[in-house]
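QA checklist item 7 of 12: single-chain prediction sanity check.
[x] sequence parsed
[x] length recorded as 343
[x] structure emitted
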Amino acid sequence: MDHAIRAFLKDLGTPSDTAFSVEKLRGDASSRIYWRLRPRTGSIPSIIVMQLPANAKASDEATSGAAPTELPFLNVARYLTTAGVAVPNIYATNEREGLVFLEDLGDDLVETLVRNADVDSRRAIYRIAIDVVADLQRYADGHRDGSCIAFSRRFDPALLRWELDHFIEWGVTGRTGKTPSAAAQSTIDRGFNKIAEILAAAPETFVHRDFQSRNLIITHGRLRVIDFQDALMGPFVYDLVALLRDSYVTHSDDFVGEMLGHYVRRRDLFSLDETTRLFHIQTVQRKLKDAGRFVYIDRIKKNPSFLPYFEPSVAYVRAAFSELPEFRELQSALAETTPELAG
């Protein structure tokens, strides 16, 4: 890695003996490792080095479609740039060493900025984020690019159902050692199939897949987007749920309703009633998957830092169920082994 960094600096015209510091950054749930490179001489700004895992083209998430022939991060970044989405500049790639050299966007994550922000400041930031979602969807709907990997994979019923089953595997059995009774599992299967079918039949568009506060950074007054390599086609409400039912930042129901209204006005394609209903159904699907994923990350990756977000994720599901009376039986069946989901 030291050799690769020095080769990169040399390509920038920096003397090969330039001193620099390397700081390891928080990597969250990703298999990628991030470092901040700070040259100690000259006018070179700090740089982010993304260190890829051995199987660099594989996704951390379950996905569909053919295996990519290009690093998904580079592939999707190219499309997003064309679409006008602000992503980090990519300075160089050393695929043999598994390194990508990126613009350092700083540490002003939306998660950090809104934690103690007043309502007006929070509203301004989230309206901008909603605008990015709406504008990207509008662009992607009119510019389906076969060279972008996102258009070759989608949230089909099988993938949606797999994510729901991930909750039973890890959020229930992995966490408690329990399994649903035969009767409860039968009800769960019917309910999960119905959710997967409804979401797979919803209007489809470009989905970032993890459009949440830790993947949005404000740099020089502009919203920048990261962690987009798992993009795919999916329900138009998916990124809205990732943003507004974020495990790390909570919002009032009134605020969420206001932001959904802003999206509907900006997108001018779907009714507020249709958007809100699908938003609640997608919340059940996404947040059950998140809750299961947090336990999986603890048990398999030995990273317990996400366990505190299990209960907030389940709380989102419980709140969504309260708006979806047609899924009352599913809620009761899940509450048999996850009492936190009880109405």
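[x] summary fact logged: The beta strands are 20-24, 33-39, 47-51, 90-94, 99-103, 204-207, 216-219, 222-225, 232-235.
[ ] second reviewer sign-off
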